[in-house]
Amino acid sequence: METDIARSKKYAFVVLKPDALEQFLDINILYGIENDKIEGVKIVKEKMIKMNAEQVGIIYQEKNKENYYHLLEKFLTENPSVCLIVEAGENAIEKIQKFKDRTRSDFKSYKFEISEHDLELLKQGKHPQQKEITNEMALRNLIHVADTDEEVLRNIETIFTPNEIDEINRINPELYGLIREHREREKIFREIVPYKK
After folding, report:
1. How far apart are CA 101 and CA 105, in angstroms?
2. Which of 1-5, 66-70, 71-75 is the most confident on average?
3. What end-to-end distance do the CA atoms of the chain give, in Å?
4. Distance between CA atoms of 16 and 82, rounded to whole angstroms?
5. 107: domain range?
6. What is the pLDDT, as a whole number, of residue 113?
């Protein structure tokens, strides 16, 4: 019998960002995921959504201290994205991350060549082309993939409504079980009150 860890590693969470939709690349990317780029992959559920600030904050938790975060939030709250739950067998995240890299390589054209000095200035928020480079490199890069199994489950609960998650039970009872287990872990974590002297 598969362990919970093995089962959770079969799934990935993907965002086709607004620039992919603007360029009608979402169709190519969806086709690539299901048909010719990754073996044994299927899309469990997809949803077009204009995210709210809270959803962006959860999905991009690791970016919220970056100096460009407010631009990322604006980009994703003002324009629709397509969010996907993908099943891909073992090491799903690794497979989909590689697909993300290929997609960016195939479809994204970069206008800027970034040196170490440029990177340092960008981190400090002092680059003369700060906004333009940030827009191209950090915002308009077509596709985002959650980095960990925990993020996958958290992002699913963030984007999909309870009714949509109930529909997942009919499509994929295994994934639904993982979502419920994650929900219970989060509930227990929230209920833990630190001991104070």
Report:
1. 6
2. 71-75
3. 45
4. 5
5. 4-114+141-191
6. 65
